[in-house]
């Protein structure tokens, strides 16, 4: 797809991987809507890139519908969706004190990372299918953000790994669902990236994490995630696949 002039949606677009994706899509000529719960950060970024900031709770259908309506009103119907919204959190199935993991912990992470992402995809895809096809029959492209934890989940990551593993697992069936309509579905599984969460860690901890990556021996840059997302949008043959973006990293148990 030629990105120039296309309407794009980025969930979790006010910070981290999402914010850099917003910047690079805008630099490529897209009209970008930033969907995020952090209204102030979203508005600041929207001013920077000439986009629009929309408060959106991806787990709430009414909130998503309103955001999609507002984005369409501002930029026209979206053909590009990049799902970056998500949360983390580590807890063992049974803690050191012998107590079981609270079910609410597992449910919350699944609700946001998996069900919330699916919620945005289903609503955005339905709108894409109504659009006229572009060259070679393409109507849209959807990108999800999984994680290497989908494959190498560490101790305490059962909930997070389950949510990210589900996104990876449904990439192919969703791509097959939408293939006849010319909508592609891809997923990126990043490794250790320098996001706001890792910025909060002491420098020595960041360096220790970076040392576990074979090459390049540093934390991933959000710009590298964004570069891949932009390339996926541009490359029509990329469909139904999960791409690990991790410098050959394989997470140890802890």
UniProtKB/TrEMBL annotation:
Belongs to the short-chain dehydrogenases/reductases (SDR) family. GO terms for molecular function: oxidoreductase activity. InterPro entries: KR_dom, NAD(P)-bd_dom_sf, Sc_DH/Rdtase_CS, SDR_fam. This is NAD(P)-dependent dehydrogenase (Short-subunit alcohol dehydrogenase family). Gene3D superfamilies: NAD(P)-binding Rossmann-like Domain. Residues 6-191 form the Ketoreductase domain. It comes from Pusillimonas noertemannii. It holds the Pfam family adh_short.
């Amino acid at each position: 797809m030629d990105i120039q002039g296309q309407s794009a949606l980025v969930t979790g677009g006010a910070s981290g991987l999402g914010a850099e994706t917003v910047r690079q899509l805008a630099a490529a000529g897209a009209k970008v809507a930033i969907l995020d719960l952090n209204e102030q950060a979203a508005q600041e970024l929207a001013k920077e890139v000439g986009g629009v900031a929309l408060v959106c709770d991806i787990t709430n259908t009414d909130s998503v519908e309103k955001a999609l309506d507002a984005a369409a009103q501002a930029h026209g119907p979206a053909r590009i969706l990049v799902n970056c919204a998500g949360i983390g959190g580590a807890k063992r199935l049974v803690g050191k004190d012998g107590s079981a993991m609270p079910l609410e912990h597992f449910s919350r992470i699944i609700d946001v990372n998996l069900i919330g992402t699916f919620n945005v995809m289903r609503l955005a895809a339905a709108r894409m299918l109504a659009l006229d096809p572009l060259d070679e029959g393409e109507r849209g492209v959807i990108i999800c953000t999984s994680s290497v934890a989908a494959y190498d989940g560490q101790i305490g990551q059962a909930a997070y790994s389950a949510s990210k593993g589900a996104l990876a697992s449904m990439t192919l069936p969703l791509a097959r669902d939408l293939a006849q309509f010319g909508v592609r579905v891809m997923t990126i599984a990043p490794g250790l990236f320098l996001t706001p969460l890792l910025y909060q860690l002491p420098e020595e901890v960041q360096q220790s994490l970076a040392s576990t990556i074979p090459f390049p021996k540093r934390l991933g840059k959000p710009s590298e995630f964004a570069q891949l997302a932009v390339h996926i949008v541009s490359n029509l043959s990329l469909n139904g696949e999960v791409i690990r973006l991790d410098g050959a990293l394989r997470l140890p148990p802890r």
